[in-house]
Design brief:
Bound molecules: alpha-D-glucopyranose
Distance between the termini: 65 Å
Length: 831
């Protein structure tokens, strides 16, 4: 391995907002997401990955093999072949390589991959031939563009061949990987000019096809994988490329691919650019065919025409960059700490967009055929996204709410394409309904748009069962109250936020799903976490009622919340921290009385976020216990001690080896809950410390240990009980992105949307002496400067806006388009 000597894998380029990877053999593929709305590509630093239209399971354009050997094989590949006649012997000699390193892995004299916002650029060189590949999905079209440039950096003429390569997926990614008795006989393609059309199943019920084309005439093509590679060859030894000529073979069944052969003579110093487009096209039923068995190519031709030159591609890239400039200008900060600035201004917001788009469907750890959109996940993802594109958050809320049942419970997941709840997982996760309140409240606080509450939304996807979104919120609130257990705490159902605390499951059957099995409807197992979420998000519901003239309902809600807090104090406190749950026998979980699992992060985070125990010292005690018992150098583990054995009465949590996942892994998603809780008790130094521990950019130097991208949060880092302590897994699609953004921007930096405007309430380390933030909010722009010369952690001495002193800490909504200068001086507060 030629690259293993350097310790670093790359660095941030803050100017261009790119992460620059400087060697291809990263400790795990480091990926980027191309696409913003309908068409998406996952793109690794060696050009691996795949793309799909809207739904990674149902409409996948290219094939990808998860858990493959070697890792990350399959992508959009451009094989290069340099051939010449040996001057002395007269024999032909040739060199074949992959300019993105994978799959051939020949040595590259230079290599760099820049992952930017919605685009990536790989550049490399070998033996005097420079290569660059710019890849992105343009804003308004359903395609991936790959602009390839070859430059002859030598003093002699070169004869280069390019062989492009993509392998088509037969659309349904699940079927594609499993149903070979059918699949091997259905693949169909057409070729016209330089365009290769993948049209499997188009003859029957599909109205869409894929096109893979290049903007120059080609010397030949291939469409059949076996012909191109050779049956017993891997991607690293395509026989066609080594032979130097395409086969012009039309695939029939088996595995359809698309490969172009282009001959590129290059004079010394000469450069040539090629635009490859991989697109998705639809035709209406009556427009499907051009003639008998010949597909109507009009939409593809229009698409290819649009991107037929390097200039057109550059314009589209400029538009994409402008789109991101605009989005990110809605929240940006300045301070001395560069790492903080790059996370807040760029990478955390970027990941929030990705989690909003993908939920938990497609990453290098989520196969795109599994979970679809999650009810609780998508509601939480909104929290970090709503300030970017509020209109999309609004639509998402209405989609999610339509998968709620009329009793207030909810489908746990739904498919993005059909927007219908998944029957195989069903409902019964008793925290789900409350996240809808949380999501809607965040939307209203951001936008001031109460009209969303009047939208008519179906229950159970059934139009006949429609009611206003407000009624959905009421059912959510009441669902908790209608499902209380023996101590008056909420029943947990199949699981609460912690999918692996399955207290009614009692599974003895290998392979049985912990989440959908209920062998025991105890009516007893209760969750202190759900109680905490209720106490945290319930007041928003009450406030929404009050502000929409539902005074009685507001009072009823407030009473119920007060009663719940009382119950938490009576039955949810263990002496030094908050309990986690009661099991189906009424035994405590997360108590000092337990052998393992004595203290959990989740309930402690949420109880303090809800301000429980602030006045009587319990909050501080709980947070100190978390620090003492759960904190590690790489973040806070989920619970301690880890479960050593499988517990029938606890379910999946005890199925994981100690230190992984929910069994005492550092489950990053709920670390920000502790960060927020620390700001509630005014400990800015502590809050920032917990923030930094899991923040990828602050951990860049640990890349070798962590393995995943230093620019994206991971769901889990192995806990101290695991042999691989500190190793991260499951990067990108995690609720950590949204909660980390909320914790840093709203609670540490303290610029928090509330119903009346923007609340200013920073809680920072005394060492941060100043920072400034530009915040777009309800049409106006606030330029906020925070002065902490006083060196406090919390407290405001004065706030003024446009030179006038404000008498409270809330910046009121201002006129559309107006700009305001806000000066905040921290210090001991006057009142
Ligand atoms: C996964 C799930 C999320 C759940 C968490 C804890 O991240 O997507 O819904 O809350 O695990 O189990
Ligand atoms: C497993 C995982 C958990 C995830 C769940 C989703 O239980 O441990 O993190 O939320 O699967 O079904």
């Amino acid at each position: 391995m030629q690259y293993n000597n350097s310790a670093s894998y790359g660095h941030f380029d803050d100017e261009t907002r790119e992460y620059v990877i400087t060697r291809p053999d990263t400790p795990y593929p480091w990926i980027n997401y191309l696409g913003c709305e309908d068409f998406y590509g996952l793109f690794s630093n060696t050009s691996g990955g795949y793309c799909f239209y809207r739904d990674a399971r149902m409409l996948r354009l290219t094939r990808y093999r998860y858990n493959n050997v070697p890792a990350d094989a399959g992508g959009r590949y451009f094989y290069l072949r340099d051939h010449a006649e040996d001057e002395i012997s007269g024999y032909a000699r040739q060199d074949v390589w992959s300019p993105s390193w994978m799959p051939i892995k020949s040595k590259l004299d230079r290599y760099e991959c820049r992952h930017g916002l919605g685009y990536s650029c790989i550049s490399s060189a070998r033996n005097g031939l420079a290569f660059s590949q710019l890849s992105f999905v343009p804003l308004k079209d359903n395609c991936e563009i790959h602009k390839i440039t070859l430059t002859n950096e030598t003093k002699v003429e070169k004869n280069i061949d390019i062989f492009s390569f993509v392998e088509f997926c037969l659309w349904n990614a699940n079927d594609d990987m499993t149903n070979f008795q059918r699949n091997y006989s259905i693949g169909e393609v057409e070729v016209e000019g330089s365009a290769i059309y993948h049209k499997t199943e188009y003859r029957e019920r599909r109205n869409h096809y894929a096109v893979w084309s290049v903007n120059v005439p080609i010397s030949g093509f291939d469409t059949d994988r076996e012909t191109f590679l050779g049956l017993y060859n891997g991607f690293d030894h395509p026989q066609t490329v080594f032979a130097g000529a395409a086969n012009n073979f039309i695939a029939s069944g088996w595995a359809p691919i698309g490969s172009h052969h282009i001959e590129v003579p290059l004079k010394p110093g000469e450069s040539k650019t090629f635009v490859f487009v991989l697109g998705y096209c639809e035709n209406s039923e009556d427009q499907k065919w051009e003639s008998l068995h010949v597909i109507n190519k009009a939409p593809a031709k229009a698409l290819l025409e649009k991107y037929n030159s390097a200039e057109a591609v550059d314009t589209a890239l400029a538009e994409l960059k402008e789109y991101w400039d605009k989005l990110l200008s809605r929240f940006s900060m300045q301070t001395d700490d560069k790492t903080l600035v790059r996370m807040v201004n760029v990478w955390n917001q970027y990941q929030c967009m990705v989690t909003f788009n993908m939920s938990r469907s497609a990453s290098y750890f989520e196969s795109g055929i599994g979970r679809g959109m999650g009810f609780r996940d998508s509601n939480q993802d909104l929290l970090g996204f709503v300030h970017l594109v509020p209109e999309r958050a609004r639509m998402r809320i209405l989609d999610i709410a339509a998968t709620q049942m009329s009793d207030g419970s909810a489908y746990h997941q739904y498919q993005p394409l059909t927007k219908r709840g998944n029957n195989d997982i069903g409902s019964g996760f008793n925290d789900d309904p409350l996240w809808l309140i949380c999501g809607v409240a965040a939307y209203i606080k951001e936008t001031g748009d109460y009209s969303i509450l009047d939208e008519q939304v179906p229950f159970d996807n059934d139009q006949a069962l429609s009611d206003s979104l407000f009624v959905h919120l009421k059912r959510s609130f009441d669902y908790t109250l209608n499902n209380l257990g023996p101590h008056g705490l909420p029943l947990i159902g199949r699981a609460d936020w912690n999918d692996c605390l399955n207290l009614n499951c009692f599974s003895k059957t290998p392979g049985e799903s912990f989440q959908t099995t209920a062998n025991y409807e105890s009516g007893i197992a209760e969750s202190v976490l759900i109680a905490g979420i209720f106490a945290f998000t319930g007041p928003d519901y009450a406030e929404i009622c009050r502000r929409t003239s539902r005074k009685e309902e507001a009072e009823r809600a407030e009473k119920a919340i007060a009663a719940m807090i009382e119950t938490i104090n009576t039955h949810g406190w263990d002496g030094n921290w908050f309990l986690r749950a009661y099991d189906a026998m009424g035994k405590k979980i997360g108590s000092h009385e337990c052998e393992d699992g004595q203290i959990f992060i989740e309930s402690n985070g949420f109880a303090v976020m809800a301000d429980i125990g602030i006045n009587d010292g319990r909050a501080i005690r709980a947070l100190d216990s978390v620090k003492e018992k759960l904190e590690t150098a790489y973040g806070i583990v989920l619970q301690q001690p880890a479960y050593k054995e499988y517990h029938l009465e606890l379910g999946e949590i005890s199925s994981y080896p100690p230190g992984y996942k929910e069994n005492a892994g550092i489950f990053c998603h709920n670390n920000p809950w502790i960060t927020i809780a620390e700001t509630r008790v005014g400990r800015g130094e502590r809050a920032f410390e917990t923030y930094k521990r899991i923040c990828p950019a602050y951990r860049e130097d640990d890349s070798k240990l962590r393995r995943v991208e230093p620019y994206a949060y991971a769901q889990m880092v192995a806990g101290k009980d695991a042999p691989r302590f500190g190793e991260a897994k499951n990067s990108w699609l995690t609720g950590t992105a949204a909660w980390a953004f909320v914790s840093i921007t709203q609670y540490i930096l303290g610029i928090r949307p509330v119903f009346d405007g923007l609340l200013i309430d920073p809680c920072i380390p005394p060492g941060i002496k100043s920072f400034s933030i530009t915040r777009y909010f309800r049409g106006a722009v606030y330029k906020i400067t925070v002065d902490n010369t006083a060196g406090v952690e919390k407290g405001i001495a004065s706030i003024s806006m446009d030179g006038k002193v404000l008498d409270n800490k809330i910046l009121p909504p201002m006129e559309e388009g107006s700009i305001h200068e806000v000066m905040v001086v921290m210090g001991s507060s006057k009142n």
